[in-house]
Amino acid sequence: MKDVQQQYKEFLLTARRKDAKSVKIKKNRENTKFKVRCSRFLYTLVVADKDKADKLKQSLPPGLQVKELK
Questions:
Q1: Model-level pTM?
Q2: Which residues are bridge partners to 65 per DSSP?
């Protein structure tokens, strides 16, 4: 199952959880999608602003596996 989150802070807390395994970043023309795989759910955050997406990418936890998709 997947869950779409609206808040940046909530998403970062989800990414810092123990059961968070990896993050996939998918860039489109209009927006950037961050997908965090946890044990039960796939959490998605959609960011329209490119500057905020870059900041969010840098503030992800360092131990998390990050994969950029086309």
A1: 0.89
A2: 22
So where are the chain's domains?
A: 2-69
Buried b (16+ CB within 10 A) or exposed e, 56-67: beeebeeeeeee
Buried b (16+ CB within 10 A) or exposed e, 5-34: beeeeebbebbeeeebeebbbeeeeeebbb
Position of tokens 């997947």? 2
| φ/ψ (deg, to 5) at 4 | -95, 125
Question: Which class is 2-69 in CATH?
Answer: alpha beta
pLDDT, tens digit only, all 70 positions of the chain? 667 777 999 999 999 999 999 999 999 999 999 999 999 999 999 999 999 999 999 999 999 999 999 8
16 touches 59 (CB < 8 A): no
